[in-house]
Amino acid sequence: MLVGAHLKGAAADFYKENRGTFLQWTGGVAGSNLKEGLIERFTSAATKDTWYADYLNCNQGLIETIEGYTNQFKKLFKRVDLNAATPVTNIIR
Q1: Which residues pair with 33 in a beta bridge?
Q2: φ, ψ for residue 56 (rounded to 5)?
Q3: pLDDT of residue 30
Q4: DSSP string spanning 43-61?
Q5: Buried residues in 28-60 as b, exposed as e (16+ CB within 10 A)
Q6: Which helix (DSSP H) or strand (DSSP E) does residue 72 occupy?
Q7: 53-89 pLDDT tens trace
Q8: DSSP per-residue codes, 12-46
Q9: Is the dihedral of CA 80, 86, 88, 93 positive or negative?
Q10: What's the DSSP call for residue 86?
Q11: What is the phi/psi pair of residue 90, to 5°?
Q12: What is the predicted pLDDT for the residue at 23?
């Protein structure tokens, strides 16, 4: 992967130690992409809690379009469900 050449410091070390694990930047089988690996390794529990609270509190504003709300909801959902493990029935509000 080309992205490995652009990483520095601890991220570069993490990539070198786990190079065989990551097959692509994103997508594919859970645990096989570098993006998820970096987020899992370098994101604190407090940050993840904040992301989850933001997701739970996501509401459409009075003057916000449905497209704007949907985009914000999807963005927040991707942060809290990296492996896409949540069933669709639990996503719909």
Answers
A1: 24
A2: -65, -30
A3: 65
A4: --HHHHHHHHHHHHT----
A5: eeeeebbebbbeeeeeeeeeeeebeeebeeeee
A6: helix 66-80
A7: 998 899 999 999 999 999 999 899 888 877 666 766 6
A8: HHHHHHTTTT--BSSSSSTT-BHHHHHHHHH--HH
A9: negative
A10: S
A11: -90, -10
A12: 76
**CB contact set of 4 (below 8 Å; sequence gap of 6+):** 12, 15, 16, 19, 34
Which residues face 67 on adjacent strands? none
pTM for the structure as a whole: 0.63
Interacting residues of 36 by C-beta distance below 8 A, sequence separation 6+: 26, 30, 82, 83
Residues 6+ positions from 48 with CB-CB distance below 8 Å: 80
Rounded Cα distance, 84 and 88, in Å: 9
